Amino acid sequence: MALNRNNIDWDAVTQRVNDTYAEEGFDEAVVVFLDALNDKQSLFARQEGFTLFPSNAACTASPFDLGDLPDDVGFIDMRTFVGSAADATLYAGDRHNRARSQDRDDLKGWVLDLSDITAGEIFPQVAALGFFFDRETLGYLINSNEEIPWGYTDGKAYLRNTSEVQAEVADPYTLLDPNGKLVVITDLTTASPGEAVVLALSQRPNTLILGRPTCGKATVAQSFSLSNGDFVVISTFYLSDSERNTFPGRIDPDIQVGNSNDLLQEMESFFN
After folding, report:
1. Which residues touch 73 (CB under 8 Å, ≥6 apart)?
2. Tens-digit pLDDT profile for the chain (272 aa)?
3. 13 falls within a domain
C-alpha cells in the first residue's frame, strides 16, 4: 500500500506512535505515523473535516513577480483545480482558448506558470495543457508492483490507455508552432498535479524549466475509509516522466533562480 513500506522499520514506528499517543495524544501520534511514511502527501481526515498532515507537508514561497511580459510572448497561468468532470472540461477548455487567442506566427514563445498548482487533480491540468505536449505517453504511475501509463491525445487526458479518459477538452487547440520555445516556471509551491506537468514537459524540445525546486509531492495518493467514517489518504504511486524517471524528492529546474529579476533575465536570454 504505502510507497515506502519496504524501507520502513515498522516495529520502531509502532513504538514511536504508541509512545507519542501515551505522552501527547492521538493527533500527535497520527502525525508521527504520517511522517514515517516519508512521502509528504499522505494525510488523515476526520469525517467532520479536521485534517492532519505530515509535519513537512507545507510548501510555501514568496511568489515571483513577472510584471508585464513582452507582447511577442504568450502566457498561460495555472491554478489548483478540484471539481466535477464538467468543471474540468470548462477549466481545460479555458486554457486552450487562451492559447488560441494569443497564438500567432511571430510569437517568440510561451511562458507557463505552474507556481499556483498547490494541490488538486492531475488530469484536468494535463488536458488543459495538451497543446504543449510533444508525445502521447507523458509518464507513468510507478510502484513496486506495476507501471501505468498516462498521457494526452486528441483533447483527452488518459490513464492506462487512450480509452480510459480522465479529463477532456471539447474544442482542443493545436499551436501554430507545436515545438516552439517554452519557459515553465516552477516554485516550492508547485505540488503533485503541477509536478506531473513538469514531468510531462521535461522531455519536450525547446523547453526551459526555470525557477525554484518543486514541493516534492510527485506521487499519486489513494483514499481509504475507516469504520468510524474517518479516512486516510496514502501515496501509492510515484509519478514518472516518459523515461520512467521518478522523483521521491523535489524536482529541480533546469536553471534555479531565487528572485524575480534573475527569473526575467533568464527568460529574456532564452527567448532572444
Report:
1. 107, 108, 109, 110, 111, 271
2. 688 888 899 999 999 999 999 999 999 999 999 999 988 889 999 888 889 988 888 899 889 999 999 999 999 999 999 999 999 999 999 999 999 999 999 999 999 999 999 999 999 999 999 999 999 999 999 998 999 999 999 999 999 999 999 999 999 999 999 999 999 999 999 999 999 999 999 999 999 999 999 999 999 988 999 998 999 999 999 999 999 999 988 999 999 999 999 999 999 999 99
3. no
Determine the distance from the C-alpha atom of residue 2 to the mean position of all C-alpha atoms in its chain, rounded to a whole number. Answer: 19
- The reported pTM is 0.92
Count of structural domains, the chain: 1
The parent domain of residue 242 ranges over: 73-219+236-271
**Where does residue 130 fall: left (phi above 0), alpha (psi -120 to 50 degrees), or beta otherwise?**
alpha
What is the residue type of 1?
Answer: M
H helix or E strand, kind and range, residue 238:
strand 231-240
Q: Where are the alpha helices (DSSP H) in the chain?
A: 10-23, 26-37, 85-102, 123-128, 192-201, 260-271
CATH of the domain at 205: 3.90.226.10
All residues at 6 or more sequence positions from 42 whose CB lies less than 8 Å from its CB, including other chains: 2, 34, 54, 221, 232, 233, 234, 235
Asked if residue 92 belongs to a domain, the reply is: yes
Q: Tell me, what amino acid is at 129?
A: L
Inside any domain, residue 87:
yes
Tell me if 226 is assigned to some domain.
no
Q: Report d(CA 246, CA 123) in Å as an integer.
A: 18
User: Contact, 125 vs 195, CB < 8 A?
Assistant: no
Strands of the sheet containing 255-256, edge to edge, are: 73-77, 109-113, 182-186, 207-211, 255-256
